[in-house]
Amino acid sequence: MLLAEPYRIKVVEPIARTTREERERFITEAGYNTFLLRSKDVYLDFLTDSGTSAMSDNQWAGMMLGDEAYAGSRNFLALQETVRRYYGFAYMVPTHQGRGAENLLSRILIKPGDYIPGNMYFTTTRAHQELNGGTFVDVIVDEAHDATADLPFKGNVDLTKLESLIARVGPERIPYISLAVTVNLAGGQPVSMANMRAVKQIAERHGINVMLDATRCVENAYFIKEREAGYAGQTIAEILLEMMSYSDGCTMSGKKDCLVNIGGFLAMNDESLYQRACELVVLFEGMPTYGGLAGRDMEAMARGIVESLDYDYIAHRIAQVRYLGEALRAAGVAIVEPIGGHAVFLDARRFLAHLTQDEFPAQSLAAHLYIEGGVRAMERGIVSAGRDDDGNQRYPKLELVRLAIPRRVYTYAHLDVAAEAVIQLFRHRDEIPGLTMVYEPRILRFFTARFEPIAKPEADLTRAREASIASVH
Ligand code: F0G
Questions:
Q1: Domains of the chain with CATH codes
Q2: What does pTM read for this prediction?
Q3: How far is the CA of 50 from the centre of ligand 1 (A)?
Q4: For residue 465, what pLDDT band results from cuts at 50, 70 and 90?
Q5: By the 8 A CB rule, do 291 and 281 touch?
């Protein structure tokens, strides 16, 4: 039985239908990079779950109560109070989004030569750590790099890896442990409460702080309730508070689990860290009581935080993601197991087994999914991994295409359409060509890199076209 929507629709936004020929033109113009497509040319936009949520009537009502004072806005006070109550941190500075908080945290705490252990990298998080002279060290469990390993808490930190890094470089070279929940690039995989507790114990023993990337913490709390012994009877809010208690602070992209289109914050318990954040936020974001946000945005975020903890909301969200994943799995499509919290990830290595990683299989798969059905997804593989400090190409084990589901936006029927497009593509996967990169930006290249298909003999292309459906719509 479907877990039906715990909301009804009050406002609608029309979306475009395009022909296959149009989509071929659009993706060519976009250099085979789905980031460079225009939103108006996309039918189902699964590029990201970030900033794409539908706000509630209650949040929109809150927008009208924006106090746009330059300092001391009442919406800031409401947000501060909400973060204290539900996240348990004494201090908070708002930022325009998550990476604004990452910038502040990295600048304040990281010195050149430092090491920052984390459970798999995230693009902007690692970029800020490296910009400040730090080296990110991946301490996630090995299985997280294996798309087929089906574990309940595949985002966990490998405690032995963490201990041996501390022994190797010394605790004084580790400003903090960067612990992400529902690890994005591992496939939206959660971290268990037991693991968070153990990480905190190790950190405390060595006098190291734990800073959470709390971006998708509510999804993580749901998985703990569902999968970890002893938590079935606790509320999402109780679980969240305990999760946060095993850290010294967090960066937050409010664009995900706080159910807003823009916003974020840096939170902490240490007063001196807060003071330094207040000094720095003025340079990069704005006054410590607005941090790059309008008063109304802070109000929407405060209300979104409360709504996100509602069990019916989060159960439905996870059910939607699972629905799409299960449809694909049933058709034999290779996906990352188990199905994660915010997205379904196609395993491009297995999907396009005829391509080498240098031919950018996930990039090509994302581009062809757009051509097939107007569905926009995102590469999370070799292009996203980028190059190391010496300019060498990184070769990540995971070569994925992410279909991220915006919160409270699409219906199950939309998910059926998306599944159908992926399955069609899967049927003629042998015909999908690799790509070459014709433009490579130096930082976070995946956003703006451009590609061209590796030329294939004309006969193959014609066959591919005949084999595929003319147009989904
Ligand atoms: N941390 C994680 C785990 C994220 O997924 C993101 C953003 C950020 C930090 C940065 O937050 O975008 O508000 O600056 N992830 C988006 C995504 C972009 O599509 O996964 P931000």
A1: 20-49+311-472 (3.90.1150.10), 57-308 (3.40.640.10)
A2: 0.94
A3: 7
A4: low
A5: yes
